Amino acid sequence: MTEPATNHICALANPTPQDNYFIKCGSTQNHVIVDNRYFVGDSSQKSSAHLSQQGGESISLNNPNPPPNSSALHTSARVFTSASTYSFQINNPGTHFLRLHFYPFSNANYSLGNGDFSVAANGFSLLSNFGADFSGVREFLLMADETEHLEILFAPTRVSNFAFVNAIEVFLAPKNLFFGEGGVRLISPDGIIQEFKQNIPSQIMETIHRVNVGGSTLTPLNDTVWRTWVSDEDFLVLKSASKTAETNSPPNYRPGGATRNHAPDIVYMTAREMNVANGSWSLFNITWDYPVPFGVDKHFVRLHFCDIVSVSLDTLYFNVYVNGITAYENVDLSSLAFRHLASPCYVDFAVKNTKDLGFLRISIGPSDLTPLRKNAILNGVEIMRIMEYSQRRSKKKSISILVVSFVCGFLALSLFLAMLALSKRKRKRRSAAISGWASLRSSFASPGPHGYYDLKIPFADIQLATNGFDESLIIGRGSFGNVYRGVLKDDIKVAVKRGLPADSRQGLTFQEFQTEITVLSRIRHCHLVSLVGFCVEQFELILVYEYMDKGPLRNHLYGSNNFPPLSWKQRLEICINAARGLHYLHTGSAQVIIHRDVKSSNILLDENYVAKISGFGLSRPGQLVDETHVSTDVKGSFGYQDPEYLRRGRVSEKSDVYSFGVVLVEVLCGRPVVDPLATGEEGLKLVEWAMEWRQKGMIERIVDWRIAGEVKTGGSLEIFAETAEKCLAECGGDRPSMGDVLWNLERAYQQMQNEC
After folding, report:
1. Which residues are annotated as a binding site for ATP?
2. Which of 604, 391, 633 is nearest to 509 (CA)?
């Protein structure tokens, strides 16, 4: 349905509180109940909000194939082909929640997952060059005055030419959600603790994490302001160092402490405490790594506490650490909770981040003041991005800039499409390939939030670096094409992956090319191969990486006589390096990333035998709040694929864990996963063959003969073999996380050093 630019849309405004707007976009329904909220279609007759557009039109889309039991908010969407603004009358001054729901679906005319757009609130940029290629909710907290309207602007970029949204929530936050005037403690990377003088309620913040520590995921139905709280399981660095605690008694709320508006009862009725019953873990802190966006300067953090583990007052003292810095020493919950047990309270502070650090690490550990049993607890965590006010511009100026950008982008796109049409007439035989290349090229035609423009390398520079793609410089071959050794103008040694011709049935696909650039331009880690740049000129698909002198791990295990055999110590170090890289993908970046193609040829070694993960063409975003897996076409390398993935087409972080377990077996045996030239069972089923010897208690029989004299029975070998076995569990739920795998490999390394 197409609607004129003058159309007025509405949202239901409940009388108490007055600022309660819940909009189901692209819908004519008068009311839809979702988790005790009444959503109103933006094309219904109950008018209390207004939509205006800067030329063009908006379109109502209905989801032609909504999944069974999906949310009612996912059945429709509003699509904008020009800059458009929702306007909400603000009747009560104060902090407001703003939630934007995105559920990309496809119909005959639009694939919403290809949208690329910006969103602003009263001229303040909330999302820039945003692409909602997976479903989710973006939540913001912002101050709004009763004398103004809250205007939410959606502006398409020239990449996609449209924006969309499925639902919008705007409502007044509870008055006691934040303290009024005054700042909070600010923790800097250099260890300096000072006051964050800005008033927290006056800040614009985006919710990054809201975590029910020690408990399960809580849906909006369980929260007074419809928040989602996720389990902390996937953020724990070492699960063995903690255990969960819970109580059936409701929280003992006290005046001046936390209320149900701060967190649901169940958050305060569950917790995670130290695993003091296991003496070996009694000295370890409990640590969580929370992925946060790169380049963000400050985060607001709220820690929720409720002492449900103590039997008397003044027995629980502990320390809180942030990124390794002591944030709070000798926390005394008896004092914080006004001398009552099981009484909820919370602590607020701000963290100034190192901008190249992709996670925020929070730890709790025992204090020396503890008179009896050492312990530490945590019930909940909230992390929000503090959005700098330097981004704020005048509303008119912001809208004008966005509109001008859109118009210019539209003209540029029209010119580009006209040129492409002429090109297609001349190249009919290669039309499909050229079309795909052209659309991909336009995706990276301008600078974006992830710095794509800065990564572009002219084809002439790559030709010069590789001496015209001299075959003597080839260092690798594959179905994607060849990899060349090269040197750029500034004497940077690089590896150049050149895709096969665009009309080839094999080669580096457009999707894989785009995925590698998207993933590697957003993340940086010492155990992930860095992307130097890319080229999409003259129908070429070229990726340029940092050069890894020693090449793939595979070549050092078998199939090459050019390298000396790796020692047991080197093999353990390489496995630890690779595990750190995968652990970072799963927990350390802004979005969980599933590699999907972990294998020994995608683990590269530098001149010092430091290992780094490569080959991100098949990578996919990981689980969302309400998912444990991602459904996808089966990809990957034969012999390394997760059995559950093969059976069901469902991939998760545990799929990477399985593949890494296969690599561990390769490292131990020094044999390929599938070797049709070998005799016996070990030739065709290396993993099954190795696990049979493991079950017989004779794992030493499969150790690579070149290091058999170094590896002693038991000790490091036993820990390594046990780790591999757990990774290879048939059921993904029985496999360890990469954090646990890393911990055990480091333990094996320490044991190896003791054996020497």
Report:
1. 497
2. 633
Contact present, 212 and 245 (Cβ < 8 Å): no
Residue owning tokens 């409940």:
14
CA-to-CA distance for 521 and 495, rounded, in angstroms?
16
Same fold, 2-172 and 438-546: no
User: Using one digit for the tens of pLDDT, what is the confidence trace for 729-739?
Assistant: 988 889 999 99
Rounded to 5 degrees, what are φ and ψ at 405?
A: -60, -40
**What's the confidence (pLDDT) of residue 396?**
41
In this prediction, residues 358-383 reach a mean pLDDT of 89
Binding site residue list: 497
The per-residue pLDDT of the chain, averaged, comes to 81
Do β-strands 149-156 and 117-121 pair in parallel, antiparallel, or remain unpaired?
A: antiparallel
Confidence (pLDDT) at 353:
80
Fold that domain 438-546 belongs to in CATH: Phosphorylase Kinase; domain 1 (3.30.200)
* Residue 634, pLDDT above cutoff 60: no
Which of the residue ranges 113-122, 368-377, 411-420 would you say has the lowest mean pLDDT?
A: 411-420
Task: Return d(Cα 615, Cα 543) in angstroms, integer.
Answer: 11
Q: Give me the active site residues, please.
A: 597
Tell me the pLDDT tens digit for each residue of 464-482: 999 999 999 999 886 678 8
Express each pLDDT in 491-543 by its tens digit: 889 999 998 754 444 445 666 777 778 777 777 788 999 888 888 775 678 99
* Residue in the structure block whose two tokens are 């402490």: 257
Confidence label for 559 from pLDDT (cuts 50, 70 and 90) = low
pLDDT value at 483 more than 80: yes
What is the C-alpha to C-alpha distance for residues 97 and 341, in angstroms, rounded to an integer? 32
| CATH number listed for the domain at residues 2-172 | 2.60.120.430
Task: Of 605, 455, 596, give the one whose Cα is nearest residue 520.
Answer: 455
Domain residue extents for the chain: 2-172, 184-390, 438-546, 553-755
Between CA 327 and CA 325 the distance in angstroms is 6
Taking a C-beta distance cutoff of 8 angstroms, is the pair 230, 731 a contact? no
**Residue 667, amino acid:** V
Maximum Cα–Cα distance across the chain: 84
The crossing angle, in degrees rounded to 10, of helices 738-755 and 568-587 is: 160
CA distance 487 to 494: 6
* CA separation for the pair 372, 374 (Å, rounded): 6
CA dist., res. 719 & res. 342, Å (int): 41
- Superfamily the domain 553-755 falls into: Transferase(Phosphotransferase) domain 1 (1.10.510.10)
CA–CA separation, 23 and 39 (whole Å): 5
Nearest in space to 665 (alpha carbons), one of 599, 603, 712 = 599
433 SS3 class: helix
CB atoms within 10 A of CB 719: 20
Please give the CATH number for the structural domain made up of 184-390. 2.60.120.430
ω into 174 cis (within 30 of 0): no
% of the chain beyond a pLDDT of 90: 47
Q: Which of 149, 161, 154, 70 is nearest to 112 (CA)?
A: 161
* DSSP state letter for 592: -
220 three-class SS: helix
Convert the pLDDT of each residue in 707-729 to its tens digit. 998 998 888 999 999 999 999 99
Any idea what DSSP says for residue 709?
Answer: T
Q: How many residues does the chain have?
A: 756
Of these ranges, 209-213, 439-443, 594-598, the one predicted with the greatest mean pLDDT is 209-213
